[in-house]
C-alpha cells in the first residue's frame, strides 16, 4: 500500500515502536496466543508437537523484528554485501540455537518450566533439516552463524529441497534409504515470501538480433520455472543483527496456465506444472561424487539464476547506482563448483539483460565472484557434457565458449601452442565433450581458496598446477589462498555441551569466550588443577550418560559408561577408511580372545561407535556398513569379550545425533589417507569438546596438532609426500601384509562374520579383502588405493598409545583441557573474519539498539 497515507505510517510506526518484551510472563502470553490463535489449539488439549510449534512462533516473531530491522540498517548504511551461494546447508535444528543467539535462554527456561515443560523436550520435537550431505553443507551453516555473530552484512542463498538427506535405516545390517520430508506440517522458522519470485528459463534457443545498431542475443522459448523465496532468519550471538538464508523453491510459472487454457490441453499443462516443482524436490545424496544428472544441473542453474537476479535487484535499487560500483557493493562466494554456472549467468544478466558491453561485464563479474574448492578427489570434479548444456542453457554455452576463446587467446600469446593449452581449456575434448566447471570457476573468479593449509598446497601443486603457474607468471601469487575451515562454538560447544559451556564461563567469569575463543587460553593455567579435573571429568561423565540414554532409546544399545568411548562419524567413503577402523576392531577382538580371563580384565574397556551415510549408489561403502554391523553382532554377543569391547553402527547419523555423540567421546577417528581429506570439520568439534584425536597427517588435523600440541594427538600413518611411492609399490604387488592384519583377513575369509548363514555378505566381505591385496593387472588397478594395508601397523601402535595414555586419568584430563582450550583458530569466527578481509573486503555493520533493547530505531 503506497501513496498518501493520512498518517498511516506514523500510526503504524507508533504501534510497532516496541519490540516484543522478553520477560518470562510475556513469553508465556505470546506462547498461549500462538497456541490458541495461530495453531487453533485449546489450552486444555495440545500435544508436545503443538507446544514446540507455538514456541517456534514465539521465536519467529522475535527473529522477524530483528531480521527486518537489520535489513533496513544495511540499506541505510549502504554497506558492501556478501552472498554465499551453496547448493547445501546442513542447518540442523533451529530452536535451541535461536534461543541462545537471541539471548533468551533464561526467560525461556523459566517460562516453560513454570508451565511444566522442559525445553529439551520441545527441542526434540523439531525435525532436523538436512539440506546437505556432510561437511560442505555443515560448513555453510556454521559460516552463516559466524557471519551473523560478527555482524557481517552477508546472506546465504540456496535451494529449499522438499526432501533433504535421506533417513538411514538399517535392516539386516544393510543401509536402507527412507525419504526425509522434513517440512511436515510446516517449519515455524521459515518465512515464505510469495511476493519474492523470479523467472528462470530452461531449454529454448538463442536468437541473434539488432538493437540500435548493436548485435544482441536473445534467449527465447523453452520453459520458465518460478523461483519463490523462503527466508530463514539467522540470528547472531551477542549482537542485534539477524541475517538471512534465502532458499528457493521451484513453482510453476503463470505462463504455463495461459498456454494451457488457450490450447485446452489442461491435463498436459498440469503435468508440466508438477514437473516444475520436481526441480527443488530432492537433494542429491552424493558426497563428493559427481553423478552427471540433468536434474542436478537444472537445480544448480535454478538457484544461481534466482540468487543473482535477487542480489542485482538489491544493487540496482540503491539511489543513483553505477555499474562500476558493483565490486564495491557485492562479493559472491561459490561453495564448490555446484554454483559456478554463476560465471556465465552473471555475464548473461549484465550483457543480455542490462546491456553492458562484454569487456566491462567481464571485469565486474571477475571482481565479484570467488570460488572455494573442497576436494581433490578426481571423481568429484564436475564436468557437464556440452550436449546437455547446449540443450538446457544454450546462451550460457555460447558465453562459456566466448570466455574460453578469449582465455585461450591469452594463453597462446603468453606460452605459444602446447599441451598446456588443452590442459587449461574450459572445454575438455574427447568422445564426449565436456565443460569443466572447476576451470570456469577459476577463470571467472577473483580469489580461489582451499579449506586447510595442506589442501591449498595440493590444489596449487597437483589439482590445478597449470593455473598456479599461470597466476605466478602474472605476478598473481595470491590468487589462490588458504582459508582453513572452522565450526561455530555456539552450536558445537554451548548448545551441544551446556556443562562444558558452564565450566568455561565459570572459569573465565563471562561468556566472552563464545565470541572470542582465544579467551580460553586462561584455562591452560588450570590444566593441572584437581578441582577443574573433577569438574571436567564430571562433565564428560554427564555427556556419556546422555549418550548412553540416547543409544538405549534410539537403538536399544547398552554401553558401559566407564569404557573409553571411541567414535568415527562421517560419510562412509573408502578414503575415510572406516574399513581400517573395523579391521582394527576385529584385531582387538582377536587379541582379547587369545587372553585368559585374568589378562582380559587388564585391557582397557572400549566402545567403538561408527556412524555415517553411504551414497545410495556407492556399492563398496554399503558393504562396509554391512561388515561393521556383522562384526558388531559377533563381538557384542561373545560372552568372553563383550564386557571389554563393544562395537556398534549408529544408524542415521545427522546433525542432531552429532550434538549428542561428539561431547561424549574420549577419542575420535580422523584417519583418511594423507592428502585425501580436504579439511575435515568434525575433528574440530570433537577437540573443542575435550575429545582427543586419532588421526593421520591430513587436512586440518595437521593444524589442530600445531595449535594443541603433538602430545594431545595420536598421529599415525604415512605422510602425503610418501603416498605416490607407496601406492606404486602396492600396484607392483610388493606389499607386505602385517601378520596381525593377515589374521584379521583370515578370520573374515573363514566366515566368522557372515559364513554360510549369509553367503551373499560372505562373498562381499571376501571381495573387499581380496581387492585390498590386488596388484595392477591388465592395465587397471582396483587394489589398496587408500593404503589401508600400509598404514595398519602404525594404526595399531597409535591405538596402543591411546590405551596407555588413558590409564593415567589425570594425564588424560590435562591433555583434554589443553586441547579444548587451544582451539580458537578453528572457530568459524576466525574463518569468516579472514574471508571478509582477504576475499570479500566486507566490514561488520553492527546494528545499534537502545540500551534496554526496547524501542525500535
Ligand atoms: C563435502 O562434504 C566435502 C567436499 C566435497 O567436495 C563435497 C562435499 Cl558434499 C566436492 C567436504 C570435504 O570432504 C571435507 O574434508 C571438508 O572438511 C568439508 O567438505 C568442508 O570443507
TrEMBL record:
Gene3D superfamilies: Glycogen Phosphorylase B. One of its GO terms (cellular component) is cytoplasm. GO terms for biological process: glycogen catabolic process. Transmembrane segments: none annotated. Signal peptide: none annotated. InterPro entries: Glycg_phsphrylas (IPR011833), Glyco_trans_35 (IPR000811), Pyridoxal_P_attach_site (IPR035090). Belongs to the glycogen phosphorylase family. Allosteric enzyme that catalyzes the rate-limiting step in glycogen catabolism, the phosphorolytic cleavage of glycogen to produce glucose-1-phosphate, and plays a central role in maintaining cellular and organismal glucose homeostasis. This is Alpha-1,4 glucan phosphorylase. It comes from Symbiodinium natans. The lineage of its organism: Eukaryota, Sar, Alveolata, Dinophyceae, Suessiales. The gene is glpV.
Amino acid at each position: 500500500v503506497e501513496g498518501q497515507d493520512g498518517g498511516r505510517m506514523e500510526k503504524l510506526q507508533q504501534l510497532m515502536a516496541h519490540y516484543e518484551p522478553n520477560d518470562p510472563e510475556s513469553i508465556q502470553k505470546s506462547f498461549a496466543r500462538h497456541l490458541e490463535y495461530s495453531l487453533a489449539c485449546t489450552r486444555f488439549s495440545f500435544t508436545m508437537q503443538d507446544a514446540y510449534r507455538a514456541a517456534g512462533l514465539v521465536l519467529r516473531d522475535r527473529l522477524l523484528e530483528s531480521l527486518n530491522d537489520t535489513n533496513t540498517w544495511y540499506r541505510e548504511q549502504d554497506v558492501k554485501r556478501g552472498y554465499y551461494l551453496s547448493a547445501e546447508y546442513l542447518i540442523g535444528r533451529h530452536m535451541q540455537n535461536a534461543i541462545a543467539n537471541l539471548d533468551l535462554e533464561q526467560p525461556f527456561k523459566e517460562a516453560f518450566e513454570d508451565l511444566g515443560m522442559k525445553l529439551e523436550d520441545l527441542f526434540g520435537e523439531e525435525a532436523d533439516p538436512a539440506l546437505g550431505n556432510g561437511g560442505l553443507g555443515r560448513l555453510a551453516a556454521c559460516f552463516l552463524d559466524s557471519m551473523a555473530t560478527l555482524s557481517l552484512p552477508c546472506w546465504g542463498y540456496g535451494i529449499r529441497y522438499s526432501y533433504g538427506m535421506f533417513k538411514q535405516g538399517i535392516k539386516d545390517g544393510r543401509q536402507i534409504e527412507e525419504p526425509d520430508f522434513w517440512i511436515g506440517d510446516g517449519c515455524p522458522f521459515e518465512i515464505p515470501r510469495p511476493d519474492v519470485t523470479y523467472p528462470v528459463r530452461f531449454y529454448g534457443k538463442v536468437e541473434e538480433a539488432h538493437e540500435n545498431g548493436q548485435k544482441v542475443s536473445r534467449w527465447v522459448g523453452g520453459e520458465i520455472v518460478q523461483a519463490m523465496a523462503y527466508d530463514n532468519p539467522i540470528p547472531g550471538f551477542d549482537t542485534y543483527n539477524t541475517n538471512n538464508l534465502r532458499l528457493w523453491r521451484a513453482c510453476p510459472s503463470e505462463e504455463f496456465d495461459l498456454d494451457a487454457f488457450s490450447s485446452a490441453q489442461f491435463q498436459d499443462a498440469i503435468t508440466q506444472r508438477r514437473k516444475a516443482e520436481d526441480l527443488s524436490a530432492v537433494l542429491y545424496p552424493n558426497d563428493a561424487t559427481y553423478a552427471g544428472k540433468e536434474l542436478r544441473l537444472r537445480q544448480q542453474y535454478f538457484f544461481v539464476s534466482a540468487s543473482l537476479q535477487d542480489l542485482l535487484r538489491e544493487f540496482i535499487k540503491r539511489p543513483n547506482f553505477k555499474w562500476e560500483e558493483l565490486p564495491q557493493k557485492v562479493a559472491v562466494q561459490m561453495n564448490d563448483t555446484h554454483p559456478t554456472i554463476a560465471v556465465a549467468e552473471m555475464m548473461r544478466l549484465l550483457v543480455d539483460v542490462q546491456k553492458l558491453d562484454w569487456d566491462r561485464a567481464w571485469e565486474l563479474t571477475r571482481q565479484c565472484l570467488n570460488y572455494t574448492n573442497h576436494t581433490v578427489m578426481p571423481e568429484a570434479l564436475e564436468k557437464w557434457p556440452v550436449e546437455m548444456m547446449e540443450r538446457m542453457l544454450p546462451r550460457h554455452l555460447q558465453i562459456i565458449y566466448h570466455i574460453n576463446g578469449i582465455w585461450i587467446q591469452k594463453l597462446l600469446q603468453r606460452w605459444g601452442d602446447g599441451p598446456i593449452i588443452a590442459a587449461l581449456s574450459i572445454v575438455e575434448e574427447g568422445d564426449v565433450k565436456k565443460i569443466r566447471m572447476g576451470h570456469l570457476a577459476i577463470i571467472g573468479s577473483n580469489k580461489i581458496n582451499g579449506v586447510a593449509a595442506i589442501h591449498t598446497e595440493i590444489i596449487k601443486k597437483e589439482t590445478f598446477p597449470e593455473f598456479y603457474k599461470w597466476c605466478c607468471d602474472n605476478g598473481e601469487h595470491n590468487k589462490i589462498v588458504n582459508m582453513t575451515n572452522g565450526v561455530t562454538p555456539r552450536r558445537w560447544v554451548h548448545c551441544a555441551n551446556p556443562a562444558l559451556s558452564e565450566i568455561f564461563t565459570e572459569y573465565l567469569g563471562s561468556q566472552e569466550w563464545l565470541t572470542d575463543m582465544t579467551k580460553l587460553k586462561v584455562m591452560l593455567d588450570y590444566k593441572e588443577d584437581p578441582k577443574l579435573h573433577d569438574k571436567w571429568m564430571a562433565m564428560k561423565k554427564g555427556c556419556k550418560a546422555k549418550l548412553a540414554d540416547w543409544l538405549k532409546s534410539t537403538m536399544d544399545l547398552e554401553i558401559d559408561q566407564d569404557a573409553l568411548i571411541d567414535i568415527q562419524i562421517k560419510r562412509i567413503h573408502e578414503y575415510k577408511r572406516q574399513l581400517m577402523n573395523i579391521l582394527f576392531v576385529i584385531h582387538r577382538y582377536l587379541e582379547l580372545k587369545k587372553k585368559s580371563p585374568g589378562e582380559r580384565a587388564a585391557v582397557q574397556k572400549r566402545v567403538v561407535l561408527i556412524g555415517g551415510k553411504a551414497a545410495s549408489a556407492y556399492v563398496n561403502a554399503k558393504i562396509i556398513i554391512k561388515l561393521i554391523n556383522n562384526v558388531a553382532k559377533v563381538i557384542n554377543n561373545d560372552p568372553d569379550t563383550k564386557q571389554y569391547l563393544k562395537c556398534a553402527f549408529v544408524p542415521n547419523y545427522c546433525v542432531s545425533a552429532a550434538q549428542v555423540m561428539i561431547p561424549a567421546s574420549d577419542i575420535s577417528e580422523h584417519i583418511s589417507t594423507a592428502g585425501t581429506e580436504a579439511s575435515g570439520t568434525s575433528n574440530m568439534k570433537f577437540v573443542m569438546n575435550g575429545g582427543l584425536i586419532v588421526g593421520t597427517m591430513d587436512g586440518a588435523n595437521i593444524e589442530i596438532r600445531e595449535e594443541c600440541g603433538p602430545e594431545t594427538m595420536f598421529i599415525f600413518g604415512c605422510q602425503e609426500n610418501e603416498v605416490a611411492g607407496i601406492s606404486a609399490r602396492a600396484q607392483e604387488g610388493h606389499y607386505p601384509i602385517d601378520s596381525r592384519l593377515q589374521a584379521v583377513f583370515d578370520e573374515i575369509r573363514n566366515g566368522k562374520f557372515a559364513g554360510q548363514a549369509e553367503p551373499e555378505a560372505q562373498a562381499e566381505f571376501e571381495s573387499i579383502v581380496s581387492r585390498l591385496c590386488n596388484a595392477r593387472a591388465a592395465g587397471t588397478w582396483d587394489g589398496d588405493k587408500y593404503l589401508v594395508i600400509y598404514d595398519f601397523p602404525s594404526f595399531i601402535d597409535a591405538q596402543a598409545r591411546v590405551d596407555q595414555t588413558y590409564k593415567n586419568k589425570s594425564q588424560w584430563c590435562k591433555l583434554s583441557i589443553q586441547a579444548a582450550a587451544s582451539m580458537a583458530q578453528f572457530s568459524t569466527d576466525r574463518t569468516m573474519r579472514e574471508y571478509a578481509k582477504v576475499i570479500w573486503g566486507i566490514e561488520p555493520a553492527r546494528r545499534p539498539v537502545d540500551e534496554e533493547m526496547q524501542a525500535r530505531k
